[in-house]
Design a protein that fits this description.
Helix content: 40-55%
Largest sheet: 5 strands, mixed
Number of strands: 16
Structural class: alpha+beta
Number of helices: 21
Strand content: 5-15%
Shape: globular
C-alpha cells in the first residue's frame, strides 16, 4: 500500500501491533551531520503491522509526500511500540532518531541471525531470502535497479524516484524481514543466542548514536605537529638521496635501498638509517592522513564522532568498526598521539577496562595446558614467566606468546624478532616442549573443524568451516578470538543492564571504554571490574586492568 495524504488516517489506524517491522529508504548512509556532508535522512518508511503493509513517503524528490504533521504523528505512534524488527535494524533506528524516534525498548535484526547461522554466507536480505525462503525474492529489486539505471541514479538514490515506484520494493523488504525472522527462530541451532546477539546489536547501535567526543584544539595541534614532522622527515630523506624522492613509492624506495620490497617488515629489519627515516616519514604521514584528517571530516557539529560498529563484521564473532575505524587507533608513540584527541564530555571521565592477556588466558582455558594454568593461577606475569623459562627477554617472550596463537612459522617469527630462521625454530620447539597443550589443541581444533564442519565456543556459538573460504588451520585461532568476542559481548550487555550509569562509548578488541560521572569513578570502577572478571565458565583466572582520565591519551591506573 502506498500511503498518501488522503489515505494516511486509514493507514495510521491499522498500525496496531506492539511490534513493527520498519525499513527506511534514505538519502544516504550516514545519519549524522559531518564536516564533508550534511546528515542523510529518511526518504520514506515501509511499515508492517500484523496484516497491514504500507510505504510512507516523507522526502521524495518526485511525487507527493505525506505532510510533515502527518509524519510527526507517525513517529509518535512508532514511539509507542516495544519492538522494532528489520534487517540491519539499528541503521533505521539511528536514521529515524533525527526525526524524533526514541530509542526502542527492543530491536530484532535478521542480519545478526544470518551471521549466527553461517558467518561465511551473504548477509544481504534478498540473497538470504532467495536461499532460505524460496521463490524469486529479488524480482522487485532487479526491476527497481533497472529503473534507477534508466534514470541515471545510484542505488542509494531511490528517494529521487516517485513514491509509487519505490513502494513495492520497500514493502517487500519488511515482509521478507518478518518471514526471515520467523525462519531463523525455527531453524537456528540456538535461538537463545539470536536474542543475545540482538541485545548486543542494539547496544552497539546506541554506542554509535552516543559517539565519542573530539577535542578540536588538541586535534589541530597534533595535526599541525604531524604535518611539520612529516615535512622535516621528507627533507632529510631527500638530503640522503641527493634529490627528490617519493617515500610512498615502492619502486623508488626499492631502487634507492636495493631491497626486494618496501614493506615495513623489510625496512625495519634493515637497520639502515635511510630505511628508518622512511618509516618515520610514513608514520607521521599516516597520522595525518589516516587519523587526524578523517577525524576532522567525520565529527559532527558538536565535535562528536559517531563511528559505525558492526556485530557481523568478522567471521570469528568480534565486531568491526568503520567511518572511521575506531578499533584501529594506534598505541601512543612519538608519531602517534592519536588517543589524545578523544576527551570525555564535561563533568565526565573516561574509565577504560581491559581484559589482561585475554588471548593467552583463553588459550589456557581451551588447552588446559598445565604450565600455562600454573602461571596464571599463581598470579605471575605470563610474558616474564615464559621469558624466564626460555632464557629470553620479556619482549621476546611476549612476541612468542602471541605469535604462537596465530600459528606463525619460524620464518615470520624470525623476522619479527630480528633473528635467523634457525634460532626462531629453536624458540618454537622450546615453547612447544614447555607448553605441549597448545600444539595438541591446535591439531584437535583443526581435526574437529575438518570432520564436523564447525567448532563451538563456550557460549554455544559456532564457527563454521563448511565452505572453501574457511581454512580448518585457522580453527584454533578462531576459537580463541571468538571466545574472547563472546566474553566481551556478553559482558557488555550485562554491564548495561546492571550498571547503566557506566555508558559504553567504545569497544576496542578486549577493552571497553566508559564515560562516567567524574565524581563516581571510584564508586563505579570496582563494580565494573567485579562483573567483568566474573566468568565462571572459564577455568583460567580472568583479570581486568582499569585506567581513568579526561583524555584517552592521558589515563592513570585505577588500583
Amino acid at each position: 500500500m502506498l500511503v498518501t495524504r488522503e489515505n494516511f488516517e486509514q493507514a495510521l489506524s491499522q498500525i496496531t501491533s506492539d511490534s513493527l517491522v520498519v525499513d527506511t529508504e534514505t538519502t544516504g548512509l550516514h545519519p549524522y551531520w559531518r564536516r564533508k556532508a550534511p546528515a542523510d535522512k529518511a526518504g520514506g518508511i515501509a511499515i508492517k503491522s500484523d496484516a497491514f503493509v504500507g510505504y510512507f513517503p516523507v522526502r521524495h524528490a518526485g511525487g507527493q509526500n505525506i505532510e510533515q504533521g502527518q509524519y510527526a504523528r507517525l513517529i509518535e505512534r512508532m514511539n509507542e511500540v516495544t519492538t522494532i524488527v528489520n534487517h540491519n535494524t539499528m541503521f533505521d533506528v539511528n536514521m529515524l532518531a533525527q526525526d524524533g524516534l526514541d530509542r526502542p525498548g527492543r530491536t530484532v535484526d535478521t542480519m545478526v541471525g544470518l551471521h549466527l547461522m553461517n558467518e561465511n554466507g551473504s548477509k544481504k536480505l534478498k540473497v538470504a531470502a532467495d536461499k532460505y525462503l524460496g521463490g524469486d525474492s529479488s524480482k522487485e529489486e532487479h526491476g527497481l535497479h533497472q529503473l534507477l539505471r534508466t534514470n541515471g541514479l545510484m542505488v542509494n538514490q531511490m528517494w529521487r524516484l516517485a513514491p509509487g515506484q519505490v513502494a513495492p520494493y520497500a514493502c517487500q523488504d519488511v515482509i521478507l524481514a518478518e518471514r526471515l525472522d520467523a525462519y531463523l527462530r525455527e531453524k537456528l541451532y540456538t535461538p537463545r543466542l539470536y536474542d543475545e546477539l540482538n541485545s548486543f546489536a542494539q547496544m552497539l547501535g546506541d554506542m554509535e548514536y552516543t559517539g565519542i567526543k573530539v577535542d578540536v584544539a588538541t586535534l589541530t595541534a597534533l595535526a599541525n605537529e604531524a604535518e611539520a614532522e612529516a615535512s622535516a622527515s621528507l627533507k632529510r630523506i631527500e638530503a640522503m638521496a641527493g634529490g627528490p624522492i617519493n617515500p610512498n613509492s615502492s619502486g623508488q624506495v626499492r631502487y634507492w635501498l636495493h631491497t626486494p620490497d618496501a614493506t615495513e617488515e623489510t625496512l625495519s629489519a634493515m637497520k639502515d638509517p635511510r630505511a628508518d627515516e622512511i618509516l618515520t616519514y610514513k608514520a607521521w604521514r599516516k597520522a595525518c592522513d589516516s587519523y587526524y584528517g578523517p577525524y576532522r571530516e567525520w565529527m559532527d557539529e558538536n565535535h562528536v564522532i559517531h563511528a559505525g560498529f558492526n556485530p557481523c563484521g568478522t567471521v570469528s564473532g568480534r565486531i568491526s568498526s568503520s567511518d572511521p575505524n575506531l578499533t584501529a587507533v594506534p598505541r601512543m608513540s612519538t608519531e602517534y598521539k592519536v588517543k589524545k584527541v578523544f576527551h570525555a564530555r564535561p563533568g565526565k571521565r573516561f574509565l577504560e577496562a581491559d581484559y589482561s592477556q585475554a588471548e593467552v588466558r583463553m588459550a589456557a582455558h581451551y588447552t588446559q595446558d598445565a604450565r600455562l594454568k600454573e602461571i596464571f593461577a599463581s598470579g605471575q606475569d605470563l610474558h616474564s614467566a615464559v621469558a624466564a623459562d626460555m632464557g629470553v627477554s620479556r619482549q621476546v617472550g611476549k612476541t612468542i606468546n602471541l605469535s604462537i596463537l596465530y600459528g606463525i612459522g619460524a620464518k615470520r617469527l624470525g623476522i619479527s624478532l630480528g633473528v635467523p630462521k634457525r634460532k626462531a625454530q629453536e624458540y618454537l620447539d622450546t615453547y612447544n616442549t614447555n607448553f605441549p597443550g597448545i600444539k595438541k589443541m591446535m591439531r584437535k581444533a583443526e581435526g574437529v573443524a575438518s570432520e564436523r564442519g564447525y567448532i563451538q565456543m563456550y557460549s554455544g556459538r559456532r564457527r563454521h568451516f563448511n565452505c572453501a573460504d574457511a581454512d580448518p588451520k585457522d580453527a584454533f585461532n578462531n576459537i580463541i578470538q571468538g571466545g574472547i568476542g563472546e566474553m566481551v559481548r556478553r559482558t557488555m550487555v550485562k554491564l548495561r543492564r546492571t550498571i547503566p550509569e557506566a555508558v559504553c562509548v567504545l569497544q576496542v578488541h578486549d577493552s571497553l571504554m566508559f564515560e562516567v560521572d567524574e565524581d563516581r569513578v571510584g564508586e563505579i570502577a570496582p563494580d565494573i571490574r567485579k562483573l567483568m572478571e566474573d566468568q565462571p565458565w572459564c577455568t583460567c583466572p580472568v583479570k581486568v586492568d582499569m585506567k581513568t582520565g579526561q583524555s584517552w591519551g592521558d589515563m592513570k591506573e585505577v588500583k
